[in-house]
Every structure is written in structure tokens, then in C-alpha cells.
Amino acid sequence: MNRMDRRTFVKVAGGMVAGSLLFGGCGEAPAFNRGVKKTLNFWAFSDTRTAWQKKAFELYKKARNPDFEINWLIMPYNQMHDQILITSQAGSGGPDIADIEISQFARFIKGDVIFVDMAPKLQAMNLMDQFYRPSATDPWSWQGHVYGIGNELNTVLLSYQWDIWEKARVKTPINSWDDFAEEAKRFHSDTGKYLIDVPFDAWGDWWILALQQRSGFFNAQGQPVLNDPINVRTLAFQKQALKDGWATTRPPSQSQASYMAALSSGNVTSLIGPSWQFSGFVQQNISQTKGQWHLQPLPAWTPGGSRTATQGGTGVSVMKTSSSAEEALDFVLYEHSTPEALLNDFTLRQTWPTFRPAFADARLSEPLAFFDNQRVGTLIQELSPEINQWYNSPYWPETTSACIAYGITPAIQNAAVSAQQALDNAQKQTMDTINFETA
Amino acid sequence: MAVTQANVPMGHSARPASSGWWRRNRRKIAPYLFISPFFVLFVVFSVYPILYSFWLSFFKGFGFDKKTFFGLGNYIHMFQDPSYIIAVLNTTKFALGSVFILSPLALLVALAINSRFVRWKGLFKTGLFFPAITSSVIIAVIFARVLDTNYGLLNTLLGWFSIAPIGWLTNTNVVMLAFIILAIWTYLGINTLFWLAGLNGINKEFYEAAAIDGASSWQSFWRITLPLLRPVTLFVIIQAIIGSYNLFAEPLLLTNGGPSNASLTITLYVYNQGFRNFNVGYASAMAYSMTFLLLILSLLNIKLFGGYSTGD
Q1: pTM of the predicted model, to two decimals?
Q2: Which of B3, B81, B276 sits opposite A397 (nearest CB)?
Q3: What is the dihedral of CA B158, B162, B167, B172, to 10 degrees?
Q4: What is the per-residue burial (b if ≥16 Cβ within 10 Å, else e) of B3-12?
């Protein structure tokens, strides 16, 4: 066997490096051909979310026999969204399909939108109206286009520890927020504990209550409306709850352990949120409370008003830069509109689907032990049509951060700052930022 | 083997004139080729982004395309932006804590470790150094439990002295103090090592001569130790200031800049503007404002401490 001298080695090694750079670096990175089948890159930030999608892809392969495979890549939450942004600007190197979390969507619709519009295909397939759209498409919609689709039906419910409430003779179900306030006052004076708490550094609860009354961050044109009368009234209600002493301030968002301690100790006995809250965080963090929870519709603000809202979620988007966008879109819509695929996510994460026909399956409405054998799916199915439509905007980050920093936190923490003053200030700060960015 | 050797002269004779040039110059060029990978990476991933962000700071528009020239507009806007001003003030508070609390404390610890009364010096040095090599994320997780208002270790400790719970991460007035406490825990060790290096560099004969002249320990400290530590002091202070103005991960993870921007730092605001609002021109301008600020502070320090001279 010939020995390789140093010069030859350097030449061969150099040639290999140059060759790999040349062939690896050129062309369109997203979808590449490895000789047998194309491979589409799917970027995600949660392995539990990819778990059901991997199963969905197996079903898809059986049903459609596609000419591609999927390469699943899971990255940390911030890193993944940042890298999608960077690769989209670079024009190559990004994924074909990606999970996009609701609060991250806005930055991808500033300037040229990098995602494929799903609306034409959804309409062509007669699928659009088969979804609960406030959870399925509203979070990823902008100016009539649908740039992502979510399978998580985030119908908001009131979860409460029924054993504590029953002992304190709290009347259930509580049908209006006025009744809730009365029950909460009595409960606090009898037990020294609280029916509910109010976050000071997060917009979630405030937004749920505002959306329940058809308001929120933006109007239909995507312009911020933080000091809209409904929003002000909602924050004033929360502020009054603290002032009257029937609610307490929630620990900081980053102190999840403290919040869970407050719930598990029974100091705070209810929460409002969707399934990722009551089926996710609560079951994962305070599993010892199994069987002590019941769910009911949100108390209404007005007779006949909506008894629910939606909150959060992660959708799936297809990149325009993908050389296989059509195939990618076909798979994404398949997995979101195939009951068998969606039921896998219910089995894995107890996620109810946004696709209405999937509720025909009785498994979604089975009694759940964690909720004292309540048929949660039936309740969700009953309430989901009441979720109000809402609007996203490219100015989501500017608006949400100003809403917390100048609106919610000062109003909740400082008795001297009224809800109106705080939200006026938040609206002004938001508009100043937007005007500077767009002038 | 024989075949290879036989082929070499043929190959040489068939080479064009350019290979003759390479043969003449290869010894001069080869060293540069060997060190070039570092410089290529340095230019691509450091020099280019630095220059590009400076260029971006004069433009506005979302993202990196469709920009419009904005002159000094981004720089002017900084002074009208209340969030930026708050971020500068918060970061400066933290830097002051690093310089006037952390650094002297580290000097005290270094003096204690360096004294003849302390045994197991290596153990203390290693123990104190551990937080410096701990991930910021882990530190944030630890301090979320230490600083929690209701269940935190610090408030439990204060409770033993009948001090009411303090909202370390929820009270706008004390949140930066919480980050200074966190920084003391994290960086005390590395700063102690800096001081120890300086202390070990002082010639012991100075102390012996001073003792013969009747100087007390206190006088030796003020007249010998501190003046001779001047170059180390300059280094410790400059790196404390630069490190402080780069505070990012801890406020991002513990408070996300809250409550009410009370822990918003410059780097966190740059990140929010650049990656959340996608306002990269303004984010670049803020990053450069921090560069200028650090440059000025560093030059002031060098002037104040008389450069790197030891003063003797």
C-alpha cells in the first residue's frame, strides 16, 4: 500500500474541504436531494409537539406515499425563532416547515412575509370553515392571509379546586363575573384564601377577559387599541379585585414554582386558561391534586355573552423559500385535518383539536380522572363556537411589552395609578414606538 | 512506493510556469496560509458583523432588506426613548454595584485568603471560582428560588431577623439590587483571583522594609498594597464595567426586564429591538452607543489610574 506524503495529504484534505464547502454551500438548502428521496427540514422547539407530528407523518406516508422524508430538528425556543428570522433574511439555510409560537409570529410579518399563504388551499379543500378559527388560524393570520395553522384548541375554561370550594359552599357553576366577585369576597372573608389571583407581569389573564368581550390588543387593521374602553374596564376589574382584597397578586411569571405552590397549598383555588394550562402545567407540576379539579365555562360579563376565549398556541408554517413548498403544505394540512393524526396529540398531550369533525370521536369526550371524571371534551366542544375572532399584528411585540411595562404592571402594583391612566400611557408608548419604526 | 517515486520527476517536468512561482514563494506564503483559517473566520464572523452593524445604525426599516437611510436619526431617537434611558440608568446602577460593592468585596476576600491565618487557600479559590464557570441559565434557576418573595431562601433568612419579605424580583426599587447580589455570588470568585494575582505580584521585601520602619499593617495596606495594585485595580474595574454593561441572560430569564422596565438592561433592550421588534437599525445604533460609552469609561479609568504604570 502506498504511503501518503505530507504534501499529498494536505492537497487531498484541502480538496475535500473545498469540495464539501462547494457542494454543501451551494443550491437551496431547505429541501435537498440525497439520491433516494427529497428531505424536508422541519424545525421545532418542543419534542412533545414533534412527537404527534412524527406519527402524523407516518400516517401521511401510508395515505399518500409522498416523494419526501422529513428531517426533524429541535432547537431551543428563542434560538429556533431567531434562526428562522436570520435564514429567511439570508435567503437560504432555513427549514421548509416550522413550528411558530403565537407570540413570535409577528416579527415574521414585518416587511415581506416569509411564509406561504395557506388560505387558497384551505378554501380549495373546503377546510376553512371546519376549523375553530380563533385557535386554528387567527393567531397566524394577517390581512386576510393565513400563514400558519394550529392544532391546539385553546378554549379557555375556569379550573377550580372543587373540594375546597364545596367545603366553603361556593355556588357552582358561577355564571357571571359579578357573581364571581361576590363569591370570592365571601370565600376570602371565611377562609382567608383566594378564589383567584391577578398577574402583574403578564398579559394573559387580562387579554383572555378582554377577548371574551371582543377586545384585545388590536383592531381589524392591526392597530393597537390598548386603551379601548373594554380593555380599561377589564383592567379596572382586576385592580378592584386586589383593592377589595378578594384576589391576590400572582408571583412573577418566571417563578412557576411559587405559583404552583400557591395552587397546591390551596391559597389560590382557581385559574383561567386553556388546556395547555389545566391539562399541561397543572398536571405536570401539581399532579398530587389529581381528582380535585373541576372545569366550568368562564363567567360571562353580560347575560348571553361569550363564556370563553382562546389563549396561546403554536402553529405550523411553510416557508416560501422552500423548494418543496407545495409538498410541505400538503402534509401540514393533512396532519391538521386528519382526526386519527390529531387524536395522537390528544393521547400524548391531552390536546383537543381545532378541527371540528375530529370531535366525532368519542375518545375526546371521555371522562378524565384528573378532573374528577368530568367530560372535559364535551364542555370544550360546547364552548368553542363562542370564542370571539381576534386579530394579530406585526406590532405584537411592541404592543405586548408596552402593555405590561406601562399598563398592567403599574396599574396592578400601584394603587395610585388608574387603569385608564396606565393603559393610556401604554397606548402612547406603543404608538410612539410604532411611529418611529414606520415614519 | 517505487512507482510513486518514479512518477515524481515526470510530474515536475510537466508543471507549468505558475508551479515554479509557487515553488519559489511557498515558504513565504505557507505560514500565512496556515494561520489564515482563524483570520478568515474572524473577518467573517467578527469584523464583518461589527462593520455591518455600524452601517446598519444609519438606516431604518424592518429587517435587513428594504432599508432607508436615516442618518443620525437612530442615535437622536435614543435620547427621546424613555425605555432606552431607563435601560442605561439600570445598567449603570448595576455597573456601580459591580465597581463599588463587588470589586472591594473581592479585594477583602483576596486579602483574607492571602493572609497567613487562612489555611486551605486552594480550596477557597476553587470554591469561589465555581460560580464563574456555571451557566447563566443555571444561575438564573438557582436565584429564582433564592430571590422568590414568598418562598425564597433570602427572605427566609431575613425573616429570622424579623425583616418583612422583600419583593426582590417584583419591586421596581430593589430589583437591580437583586441583580447586584446575584453578580456578587457569581463573580466574587473570579475577581478575587484577579486581586490575588496582583497581591502575589507585590515584592514581599517592601513589607519587610516597612515593618522595620515601624509601619502598621493598616499603613502597609494603604501605602504599599493599594498603590502597587493600581494596574490590577484598573483591570478589575474596566472588566467589571464592561461585564456589567453586557448584563443580558440573567434579567432575560428572571424578570424579562420587568417589573415596568426596572431591570431592563441595554443589551436586553438591544435584543428586544433587534430580534423581537426587528428594528435592526435602531438596535445597532444602541449597540454602538454602548460601545462609545464603554470606550469613554475605559479611557476615563485609564486616565484616572495613570495608565498601566505602577506609580513607582
Answers
A1: 0.84
A2: B276
A3: -100
A4: eeeeeeeeee
